Write the structure tokens for this entry.
Amino acid sequence: MHKTVAKTVLPAKRLRGDFTVPGDKSISHRAIMFASLAQGESRIRGLLRGEDCLSTLHAFQCLGIAVAEKGEDDIIIQGRGLDGLREPDNVIDCGNSGTTMRLMSGILAAQPFFSILTGDQYLRKRPMGRVIGPLTAMGAGILGRDKNSKAPLAIDGGGLTATEYHSPIASAQVKSAVILAGMQIDGTTTVYEPHLSRDHSERMLRYFGADLESFSGGTRVNGRVQLHGKDVDVPGDISSAAFFLVAGLIVPDSELLLKNVGVNPTRSGVIDILQQMGGSIELTNLRELSGEPVADLLVKSSNLQGIDIGGDLIPRAIDEFPVISVAAAFAEGVTTIRDARELRVKETDRIAAMCECLGALGVAIEPLEDGMRVAGGKTINGGEVNSFGDHRIAMSMAIAALGAAADIKIVDTTCTQTSFPGFWELLDQVAEV
């Protein structure tokens, strides 16, 4: 259990600075996982040292993978191949990380041994049935609480058969779990999804040597193809950058340069949304690192306008909607977010949480079943809000405070360590109050 810590954030006169944000969380998770399943040594540079990724690292150490530290953000993993993991002698704790639990379920479902995955109080409330369903259909023996829908998960692995799975939702975690199971068994496994979800798994698996094909509407993998160790450079996390993109837009007389940020098109929806709202965000120095597109982002203060957001944009920006709702509160006119029901089953119900937090500060915000409606352009008051133990809620409210009329106190801020260690220090560094 974290000790509850509150922080008070003051309004800012302007923001100035050039900096990098921590390594991408999604890519860091996958780099650890795929390097562990590869044959031979992999070096991962720029690894995010957030608690979620450390949960993944610890999980593979429990499965017999050797890890050596090589500097602050560099590690070397000695991969043992598809058949090299060993049965853990204790329960594997995934902490607060849904990515760890869902992707590990796919990996462990194909392994010929018994394992148990658990997590903290928040993770044990999150839905796991969407992963358990397709893995069970492949032949996995998985038992969980609440009619096989919640952790802890007991996994009796092995004996899977290749499958074709039609996912009812666009979810990178569901897709990755099925692909990771299929990758370890004979035959071809195919996942179809209604919209393209983030494709970090596909890009990195190909980089490690998997026989994997992406096509319009889905992904297929041919199993039992050995991965080989690689050097991986992890770009800056666009989900972390999003907080400072919004901050730079809403605080007058601001200019920020965010260096080395991942701009994978399946993840860059937040840039498209903010630009559609009238935000000045310029991508420079475009390049590629370990199969991922990267750029430097120059953001300047802008007069934002409300827009309608929905459809294919939603899965490309699903983690950024808490801070997008903050941008909407500072925009002139109404912003409507639809098709985002997934927000209700994140670390908390992010629709309810952001409506409660922004509403408490005087923002005219209305929850919808699958999103929210925000009438922006009014003064945002000071006050006190609760993060509900959700890192993205805590950081979003800190950004709101920078443009508010008075101080905002945010209760329960230790949770930011899960994805953005150093967030508060960086905020202090770039904000002139």
Observations:
- The first strand starts at residue 7 and ends at 9.
- Residues 25-233 form a domain with the UDP-n-acetylglucosamine1-carboxyvinyl-transferase; Chain fold (CATH 3.65.10.10).
- The chain has two domains: 7-23+235-432, 25-233.
